[in-house]
Amino acid sequence: MLEVRCSGTPYEIGHQHGAAAKEKVNGSISFYEDLFQEACSMNWEAVRQEAQKYIEPLRNISPSHIEEIQGLADGAGVDLLDIIALNVRTEITFSLYTDDPTTPIQTDGCTGVAYRQPDGQMLLAQNWDWQPKQAPNLLICHISQPGTDMPNISMVTEAGVIGKIGINSAGVGTVLNAIRARGVDNTKLPIHLALRTALESRSAREAANKLYKMGTAGSGHILVSDPREALGLECTSIGIKEISLDNNGALVHTNHLLLEHPGVDEPGWLPDSKVRFARMSELVQDKIASANINHNSLFELFKDEQGYPASINRNVTAHRDGTTTLFNINMDLAKRKALNIAYNSALRQSKSLAAELQNLNTKPQASPSEIGNVSASIATFTKTLDDYQSLARQEIVPKKQEEAFARVKRFRENLSDFRGQIDSLKKAREDAQHQANRTELLGRRPYNATPENPYANATTTNTHSTFQPRHPPQSNGPLTTGSPDEMREAHAFREQNFFSNTNQALDDYIARGQAVLGDLGQQREMLKSTQKRLYSVANTLGVSGDTIRMVERRAKEDKWIFAAGVVIFFLFCWLVLHFLR
């Protein structure tokens, strides 16, 4: 799958998503345009009108998400309503379906499991079944918001959809089972934005409380877990009901409601949902009974094809409705890898930089290209350290956080040493170049070949040159001539000497240019970091673009009011002096 890394403000995150996956976003729009027509008898214009209903409610209950959606639309070069339609596709497909669709909408079949291991740590996994036409439009999205208290997020999603199935740096994971039930309330949070809200939480209970407060616009089962607790949230437009782990520490869910939801119309949809629920429950309990369930063995359960095609795994697309298992996700929430991956990356880069600098220090003089390569590696290492430090701040285990901060401190010391070494190499090269220029200037003679005098007789200063004539002319003065061959050879020598000096000068200019570019790159990174902090502060204070523009307009209006007041005041003074004097 394509991996997209997004960082910054909500708008910037969306824009990076849209720009990096532009073709896939358009693929998602095309896929759902056909699906909505088949399942709901709605053309794309009708879908856009339905999406329009969500804009104002989302601005009220989830402004950061609507900003991200706007950025995504701009980045992909599509309309805002197209991206909103993708993010409310559950509400449209499963809540506004027709009784007699053009084609059957048995297009899902997801099976999710949460399990608490004997040591208390949670496992979370799911098979995601959907139409294979949408498979090319899947991607892995990594999201970070520096300067905020939001955890970093990694999720598998459909291009254009900002919330889906994944895990965050606090160890909170989510999976989803589609539920087909009538009814939609567009004043509440769409299911996929509810998933994103859960992934922006630091615990399963925090995620559940957020969703209880905001409610969901449509129906679906969100299984949310952290390293110690898992909660099954059966969501409908009427309300949310919670399922806890059973006595063996397991929770299994498929595509039908397990609890009673008064007032909810859930007609029969997937005949195999109850079959898969029973089969997975059986497999999980067997593994528990044999004390043989862990991260790896849980994954094996999702390969089960008993009862195919109504099976947990649908690896072969033989369904008449086209459903197949597109991916499996298996999360060990207590042993999330994000922090370790960042540490390993920083360690690898640190060792590589140390080796490169050691190699350069053994050379008499480093070339400009070698210095430029190491400078670029140092800039990359700096970015990796910033990411690692951000993850360390979000670590919820005090001991691990303390260890991570200690590692960051050591890496920062290494970084300072690397910068000192590269600065020394740059200075040594500049000093050598300065000395060479000084020597050349002090030793220059009227007949030396230089860029200013390229065809001068250079035999007096380049007696050991490769390009020196084999038989230099015997002469007592610069006007003495030799044979034609000797003259041609001497002329060629002067040209080669000129080219050699020119190449050396160009190398010097390139070295200076690379040094300037390196400095500009560092300045650019500092400015980007400052800009992100400013955006973060603005978001924290609730200052949106619209608010800023409103303040600017108000300031301009106040200026005109002040000017008018001054004019009226002086006019009043003149009238008083003129008529009452």
UniProtKB/TrEMBL annotation:
Q: Does the keyword Cell membrane apply?
A: no
Q: Where is this region: Disordered?
A: 427-485
Keyword tags: Acyltransferase, Membrane, Transferase, Transmembrane, Transmembrane helix
Q: Where is the Peptidase C45 hydrolase domain?
A: 117-338
GO MF entry, a single one: acyltransferase activity
Transmembrane parts of this sequence: 560-580
InterPro entries xrefs: C45_proenzyme-like, Peptidase_C45, Peptidase_C45_hydrolase
Q: Which stretches are tagged as biased composition: Polar residues?
A: 456-483
The record's section on NCBIfam families has: C45_proenzyme
Q: What is this protein called?
A: Acyl-coenzyme A:6-aminopenicillanic-acid-acyltransferase 40 kDa form
Q: Which species is listed as the source?
A: Fusarium culmorum
